[in-house]
Amino acid sequence: MIRLLTVLAILACATTAFADEACRKVLHLGDSYTVCTFDPAIDGIQLYEYDRSGKPYGSFRTLETDLAQDRLFVRFAMNGGMYQDDLSPVGLYIGAGKQLKAINTNKGWGNFHLLPNGVFYIQPGHAGVMESRAFVASGIKPFYATQSGPMLVIDGKLHPSFLADSTSFKTRNGVGVTADGKVVFAVSDGFVRFHDFATLFRDDLGCANALFLDGSISSLDIPEWQRRDGLFPLGPIIAVTQSLPG
To answer: Backbone phi, then psi, for 6, in 5-degree steps?
Structure first.
């Protein structure tokens, strides 16, 4: 009981401990987006899937509570790739240097299989987004990686299946990397087309490569904004953490 109260106290004071200006609102083609930018050289960007008992975290709240035991504060978190009913990743997943799920480049139904799909990966001081087959060919051995799909932007070009006049509007979230190595996360505040979401990354956010993470379950955790989405269970989670003072 005492340990739980200590964890809750840490979480309660953490928001005031770290004023976070990484996130902002961006307007693109008349639509509003929440955009958060981090530098992998100085910010603790990491992937989380299973807790210390081997059970999927499933929610931002559970992740925050668990990390607080190690005096880590979650500055930002977002759902980090598509997953099965048991919350396990659909495609490649690497955690702490260990591959837990192999890469998946099979054709099939759904957004994940709208090829080309891609990989968001993290190495010490560096992060990237790469089309899946190119990632395999590169021989990169990242410390963290998650696969999703489709790719939004591939070497400066939009995914070939996106239509400027598409009638498919959904909430969408994704990740890209800028020319100077910053990692940019974005989620639409309303329903948008794939095409418009992709041009946000390419034209406004300066990402030559960007990856779609998911649609209707798009979720954000921004403690500084007092926002913690919890409507859907989550599989992989991308989080930016910082050590608490003292």
So the answer is: -65, -45
